[in-house]
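Lab manual, section 2.4: Encoding a predicted structure.

Procedure: take the sequence of the chain (886 residues), apply the prediction step described in section 2.3, and record the output as structure tokens. A sample record is shown.
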Amino acid sequence: MFHFHLAVLLYCAAISGWTTGRILTAPDGRQYRSGVLAVKLKPELHNLVSPGCGLFGVPALDRLNHKYGVSDVSPLVRSPRLRARKHGCELTYILRFDPGQDVFAAKAAYESSGLIEYAEPDYMMPVVAVPNDTLYPLQWHLARIGAPYAWDVFRGDTSVLIAVLDLGCEWHHPDVENNLWVNIPEDLNGNRRFDTLPAPEGDIDSVDQDSNGYADDVIGYDLFLSDPNPAPIRPEDDHGTHCWGIANAVTDNYKGVAGVPWNCRSFAFSCGAYGLISQLAAAAGIYYAIDKGAWAISMSFGTYNTSPVMAEACSLAWDAGLVLIGGAGNDGQNRRFYPADYPKVISVAASDQTDRKTWWSNYGEWIEVCAPGTGIYSTVTNHGYGSKDGTSMATPVVTGALAWLKSAYPELTNVQACSLLYACCDSMPDSLYRAGMLGAGRLSLSRIILPRYYCDLVLTDVRFNDASGNGNGRPDPGETTAVIVTYHNTLGWQDATGVTAYLACGQPGVELLKPEASFPDIAAGSSGNCSADSFVVSVSETTPPQHLLFSLTVTASPEPAFPDTEFQVVCGEPRILIVDDDNGADYEKWYAAAFDSSGVLYHLYSIRASGSPTAETLRHYPVVVWFCGDDSVTTLTAADRTALAEFLDAGGNLLISGQSIAQNLKSESFLADYLRAQLADSSTGKPYLPGIPEDPITRGDTMVTGGGGGANNGRSLDGIRPANHGIGCSRFRDYPDTTVMSAIRYAGTYRLVFFSIPFEAIDHAVSRYVQKWTLVRRILEWFGERLPGVVEAPPPTRDKRPYVLRITPNPFTHNAEVEFIAPTTGIAELRTYSISGRLVERQQQPVRLGGRTRFRLGTPPLAPGVYLVQLVTANGAFCQKAVVVR
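Recorded output:
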């Protein structure tokens, strides 16, 4: 029975019109598709070919087509607009024939015709290496150090040996056994595994076959108990199994976790029990590893006291060409820890998901390097998996990285490997790093590998040339602007040639008149821009003020390591002024978040910093948002009321909020004449606010002024009645007088929405209650403001891969729909992880094979950021990235 992913591949081929065939393996190990052959004709045939119905129109070639049963001849370059003739690409054709035919025999026959330049099977190219281990998405540390980039270049070498000195290793764990080193002379039954039965069925005969001083050491040894079985003494001693898996778990085996180097081999050692490591056993393990040709030794243990036995063993191992790695300790101290601080050992501190030192990791000038050490998922005893924290976990991460480095570049000495490892570390946003207490920084395989094969084009400048418009250097409504982009190629990376970038923007009203731009070649360490061939962008006159989000994708030779970039630019002038009148509180953040979610532009004005705004200041904005929070001392001074009265008399739009406004102004005519209200109750004590069904703002939805999704400052909650043609928007639940309102609106010579409760207190943590950003959008629409539209999704196309997750819209603000065609019948689980690997949401539902299935993201709300959405089914796990913006 063949794998599910292969079945999907063949299904994709069938629905796309390809010859399905089979995926076969060529003599050189590459995979190819049967029944398909590409041929490139010689240039002299350019005007003679008229392909169709399996024929070229060239007799000699058509005879070969007939011989091999070619059913279709189609050009590789199909668009007549492409200028492909310069490179001869238009002479390449795809032949499809009976999948049972020998592709390589057909290749030889066509090449011997003398009419073609080459023939080539359809080799299958793997994507950037991401292993199929089911728990890989939980291993945040692998992506953080750039392991997938390293795996794409080289996937370990079984001749590179790792020694993890620890509390034993559960060597029969399914994610351990296949990556165990095997001592061939001691493998008496020759099956390349450890069998604890007596010979000849097993490997136990108490004879030291290889004369190394250890009898029956097939996969390593228990150096603590002098026993050939290196398994832990008790299941609780799973520390060694966990560290072993981090360093070298079997990778790409459709189960469990992945190891850092992908494909090395490791000894199984036990050097202690009950949470303690014997120094003598550990030293013996070092000598054993030297004798057997190990490269890297991982030591996730230590003490604050030195040991000459261990120091000598470490020195000998280094002189023998090995690398040794030790954990720095977990006491949060600047205190030297051994064996990590021996001169010949790499001392490793632990970093977290933000690239800062974990609070418990030791630190100091004696640290060489940091590595991820918190929430590290790996193997544990009883064939299980689990997460652990500690410099113990960071140590095998570095060990595995050095094993990969030796695999990829076997000529490296231990001195060279360590120097390269340090030179390519990432900097850390930690004051201890800047003070020299965290060594070279956080381990990075990507910085080792990428500069050797990629260029690094970093967006450094974006200029909008709107000389034909208002000349303010941005794309305002009604303008057509040239966009000039500058890239810098990082020193030490590859020179970039043939640089071209593509600009995209999915926001309504933005048209890309020229979405492609070319650049000069950009050598490493230099910059280049597209001033000679700029992008051109046109913004519609009706586009409301907003931030425009653009995305750039750059191509070059060699490929850019990070081709995609996003940038924002302001379009238009803000039409909204938010006046902060909360007497020094920080409630403005709730208003900023609510307006940001609608994508509108605004200015923030602080009365505490700048004094009361003048009427002239207010008149610059069609909409004023004024909030007083729970201030009951300086609420709407005489100067404030005068400025607001002039603003409203001129036809302005006002959203005003504050739980003490009505009671403070109950004797002022401003309350009735401009806010269209009168005080009914200075403290209703009712936090639930049901909306009026026919009201255009509340629409019958209920608000609640309590909970962690708001400022939680609703203490007074004035009750008000409409006055002078004001209309109630929401009431107080369980309040006996139904004429008493919590919000009033007015539409006459001006428009007004007055909340007698703190608008910032409206909770958004419970989805069944209406949220602040929804109310803001409704209020602005009622004021007659044009709001930014939803970012347009790409045009809908039929996805040839039925298992792929489709997230619409993406990016999204509040909610998105995840849609897929179920690849199996049973239970499908949708898991949403933060970019740091934390599981934030889990949903399940039954599915039927081939059925269209949907999940909803964003209920409860997701904070802005990047998420990994994973669909888990019995037939595989599939992932997609989602982005939440506000």
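Check your result against the sample. The longest strand covers residues 546-557.
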